[in-house]
Amino acid sequence: MCHTPLMLPLKCNYSLSSSSFLSFQFKIGLCQLSVTSDKDKNIAHARTAIQDAAAKGAKLILLPEIWNSPYSNDSFPVYAEDIDAGGDASPSTAMLSELSSLLKITIVGGSIPERSGDRLYNTCCVFGTDGKLKAKHRKIHLFDIDIPGKITFIESLTLTAGDTPTIVDTEVGRIGIGICYDIRFPELAMIYAARGAHLLCYPGAFNMTTGPLHWELLQRARATDNQLYVATCSPARDTTGGYVAWGHSTLVGPFGEVLATTEHEETTIIAEIDYSILEQRRTNLPVTKQRRGDLYQLVDLQRLNSN
Amino acid sequence: MCHTPLMLPLKCNYSLSSSSFLSFQFKIGLCQLSVTSDKDKNIAHARTAIQDAAAKGAKLILLPEIWNSPYSNDSFPVYAEDIDAGGDASPSTAMLSELSSLLKITIVGGSIPERSGDRLYNTCCVFGTDGKLKAKHRKIHLFDIDIPGKITFIESLTLTAGDTPTIVDTEVGRIGIGICYDIRFPELAMIYAARGAHLLCYPGAFNMTTGPLHWELLQRARATDNQLYVATCSPARDTTGGYVAWGHSTLVGPFGEVLATTEHEETTIIAEIDYSILEQRRTNLPVTKQRRGDLYQLVDLQRLNSN
């Protein structure tokens, strides 16, 4: 039932990225950090949380969206760092690089405002166990929404959208990255699954309106439809801030089951990921093989153009 | 942000099918029927339920998956009807046609086993208010799953899969049809949304394993991602049967909110649908316009080939 027209790369043809991960187990740490208006304090605070999570055995640590700055269009230009210049131009990512190497862990570094030339991005950096920057994801779908009387935010007033999906091979598997609003677009998760992702990481700061409506739902949907793990990490809630985050950082398994979650206070979740479950779920419900490539195909344009 | 390569029809370019439905409100009836091994009784029983729902004001009535027959590979050939021949060759659909005309309602007739030549299908018939068969959806994705010790079912042992998506303009809006396992494939719902659906109807008999795991989740995900209404209708639970249905027929709104649902006993849900909410939700969260057609595109091959 997996038809293959010649013209298009076919969604059906995906497989686990590497058999070496098929029975891999490890602990993930989701650091739901309190974020203040003091960048140095935010960096020091994240450092401590990462050290604590690593001490508890986490081999992969995920930070929240915009963890070094308040979440506001006014703050983004002020707190932005030049990640490519590095060193003093980016103290937030310098800390992540230092710790990933020192602690021999992989860090999916939430996101920070990035300055590049005259543009600003909402950017997630992934550091490997050698401290090197393995990948940089610039939020692809900017958060421009308007629910009158509830939540209005126009990220595109200050930020530029990234122009590429980001999937990265790490020592803890193949990880697809999205930032917050990116999770609303099922196509991105489907592209990552087709490229062999084991896990999707979404740093995200949903709010008090969309959080209760959709935060857990979207994570569970992406995990279930694509039969992979989904991890999210939010800032802790600060009701005195201009933008009040929902919290509820969560790890979801490949059947859409919530494996670990929390409320809105600052905390670190340590939870177990077991990739052998992926193959089991994909055998139970072989939806990938059952897709109807004769009726629909999701085209991954970057992949198409690179072939 | 909605880039348009020339080569492919673009997901971004969708709009509501018809402005005449933009402020349309009506009642839907979801008849969660008990199903027995007596076909005549099942037909008489469905007739009564439809009449009752129409008397309560339902202008659209949805029946369960396989409502005229037990749900088993042994039963499908025995209970199958030749829908195209009609009349005495298909008493189940003859009843639906008669009632839709008599009561001036639209019926999305759940599904029945269909015989066509030497093949069997799991088929949903849609009747308009004039009693005419408007569309026939043959389940596209057959239910072949194996969760050892929980649920194993191989529909493809007896059934043939349909070969086309089914979307139909009715007096109560543009409706996309899927049957049960079809709901697991996000692409089908996305195709329907791109073709301007207001509402997706999924007759479905999830089971006691996948029901609690995924039934509500998948409905809410399809509704939220595509910003449309989703209605489902299951048979009532019969714990003495070979296949035990989860029940929980449900209506979900375009923000993924459960508007009406039930447990597993026989009942009819009457609930209100208001299409003006669709435009409101799509303005609140304009995800369709925010899709990244430069990065991914879902190709609807039937539509592509017809252009």
Automatic annotation (TrEMBL), chains A, B:
Q: Which gene encodes it?
A: 11433493
List the Pfam families.
CN_hydrolase
Q: Which UniProt keywords apply?
A: Hydrolase
Q: Where is the CN hydrolase domain?
A: 26-275
- Record's protein name: Carbon-nitrogen family hydrolase
Task: Say which domain of life the source belongs to.
Answer: Eukaryota
Q: Which GO terms describe its molecular function?
A: hydrolase activity, acting on carbon-nitrogen (but not peptide) bonds, in linear amides
What organism is listed for this UniProt entry?
Medicago truncatula (Barrel medic)
Q: Could you tell me which InterPro entries the record lists for this protein?
A: C-N_Hydrolase (IPR003010), C-N_Hydrolase_sf (IPR036526), Nit1/2_C-N_Hydrolase (IPR045254), UPF0012_CS (IPR001110)
